[in-house]
Here is the input.
Amino acid sequence: MAAASETTNMDIEQHNSVSSSADEFSVRPVFVRTQYLIKHYVCRLCQDILVQPQQTICGRRICKACIDRKFGSENVIPCPMPHDDIDEDELAEEPCQETGLHRNQVVPDSASLRVLLREKCFCPHKVYGCSDTPMWKKLKDHVQICQFTPVHCTNAGCPKKFAKEALNRHLEQCLFMVVPCNYCGERFKRNQLEDHYGECENADTQCSICSLELGKRRQSTIGIKKVVNNKVKPLEKVVAEVAMAVKKLGDKLQVSETDGDHLVNAMRTVAHILQQIEQINRKGGMIERQIRDSGLDKVTVIESLSQSIRRINEQQNEMEKRLKGQKSASYEGVLIWRISDYKRKKSDAIRGLQMSIYSYPFYSSRYGYKICAKACLNGDELGRGKCLSLFFVLMRGEYDEHLTFPFKQRVTFTLICPSNSELDKHETFVPDQDSSSFRKPLTDMNIASGCPQFALHSEVESRHFLVSDSIYLRVKVEPSGDIIP
Here is the structure.
C-alpha cells in the first residue's frame, strides 16, 4: 500500500510542478470514457471534463483555467459557482456567500486528478491510423514515439501529409523527389523528368534493348506531346470552368443550408455540372487511349488533368450528398435512417477504420432544434463489441437564439422491423439537464448522448431487422414549445 501511495503522490507532484505552464495536462484529451467522465468529473463552469481540477471552499469542482479567468487580477470575487442543489437557507450559510470567494480558498483537487491521470484517452493521431489508448499521464510519452505522427513530405513542393510510418513508401513514388537523368546524370524532380528526356542531348544514343535511335525517339516524343497539348488545352479550359462552377455551387450550398428556397436551384446546378464532368471524362479517356497507342508510358500534362478531374468529381459528389441530405431533411422531429451496406460498415468499425457514422440532420420543428443521430455499429462504452450503440446529437442550428436551453424534450430510438411493426425495439430517454450534451451548442455539434447498449448484435442481425444488408432506425423527438411565434 505504501508503494501505491508513493506512486500517486509522484503523479500529482509531477502534474503540479508543471501546471503553471502550457504542458500536456493543460489541454483536454479525447477520453475513451467521455460520457462517464462528463457525469462524474465535470467543471461547473465550462460543463466539460475537468482539466487541472481545483476545488472551492463550497465543494465545487472546476478547471484551473476557468477559475483563473473568473478571478482575473482580483483576490476576492462573488462566488461564480452554481448552488442549485441547496436551498436558500443553506446557501446563506456558505462561507463563499458571506465574504465572497477568496483565491486562497481554491485548492488543487488531488482526488479527481488521480482518477483523470489514469483514464485512457485516444491518441491525437487516431485519424492517421493509431489505435492506442494510453492513460492521460502517459499520453505525451506515447505521442513522442507514435509511428502515426503526421509528417509532411520532405521533398520541396510536395503538399502531402500522412503518418510517419508511410513516409518511405510515399518517397518511392513522390513526383517531387529529385532523381538523376539516366543519360546525362543531371538531377530533376520526377514530374520534370519526362520533359527533360525530350530535350536531353545525351539521349541521342542507341538503346541497348530495342536498338532504336534515341534521338529519333525523342523527336517522336516531342511531336506526340505537341499533339496532346493541342488537344488538352481546350480540355483544361473546360476543367477550369467546371472548377469555378463547383466553387459557386459551394456558395449556393452554404445558403441552401439555411434557406430552403435556394435548394431547387442548387440541385439544378448539380445536374448541369455532372453533365460537364461526364463530357470531360469521355474526352480525357479518348486522349489517354491515343497516348497509350503512341507508345508513351506517361505524359505529365494528362496526369495533372486526370488529378484535377478526380478532385472535382470528389468535391461534386460530396456536395451532391449534402444537398440530397438537406432535400430530405425532416422538420417534424422524426428521422428515418436507413444504414445500408451494414456488414462492411460494421467490419470497418471492428477494425477501427470508422468507429461511428452520423445521419443527415433533421429538426424538431420547422424553426426548432437542429439534430442528428450517431451510430456505433460495433458498440461504444459499455456496449463495445456486443451492441449497436445509438446516440442523440444536438447541433448548432439556425434558430438557436430563439430556443430554450438546455434541451428538455424526450427522445425515442426505434429499431424498425420492416415486416412487422409489433417487433420494433424502442428505447426512450429524458435529457440530463446537467449534461453539456444538451446545452446551447457552441461548436458544430455537442457531445453525443444516448444508449450505448441500445440493441444486441444478435437482435440487430436477425432476419427481423437486417434486410438486404440494411437496418432501419427511427429517432423521434417529443413535440414541445420550440416554435417561433
About this structure: The longest strand covers residues 387-395. The chain has three domains: 2-119, 223-327, 334-477. The longest helix spans residues 214-256.
